[in-house]
Amino acid sequence: MRFFAPFKIAARALRRNKMRSLLTMLGIIIGVGSVIAAVSITTGATKQVEDKVASLGQNVVTVFSGSFNGGGMRGGWGSAPTLTVEDANAIKNEISGAVAVSPEVNDRMQVLANGLNWNTRVNGESPDFLQIRDWDLTSGAMFTDGDVRSLAKVVVIGKTVVDQLFVNQDPVGQTIIIRNIPFKIVGVLEPKGFNLFGQDQDDVTIVPYTSHMKRINKRTFVNSIMVQAASKETITQVQNDITTLMRDRHKSAEPDFTVRTQLELLQMATSQAKTMSLLLAMIASVSLIVGGIGIMNIMLVSVTERTREIGIRMAVGARGRDILIQFLIEAVTLSVVGGMIGIIFGMGAAWITAHFTGWPTLTPMLWIGIACISSAGIGIFSGFYPAWKASRLDPIEALRYE
Amino acid sequence: MQTNAVIKLTDIHKIYRTGEVDVHAVRGVTLDILPGEFVAIMGSSGSGKSTLMNMIGCLDRPTGGNYFLDGIDVSTLDRDARAEIRNDKIGFVFQGFNLLSRTTAQENVEMPMLYNHRRIPSAEQKERAKKALEICGLGARADHKPNQLSGGQQQRVAIARALVNRPSLLLADEPTGNLDSQTSIEIMGVFQKLNEQGITIVMVTHELDVARYTKRMIILRDGKIRTDEQVADRLNAEAELKNLKQAQEAVKLA
Question: Which fold has domain B35-60+78-253?
Answer without folding.
Answer: Rossmann fold (3.40.50)
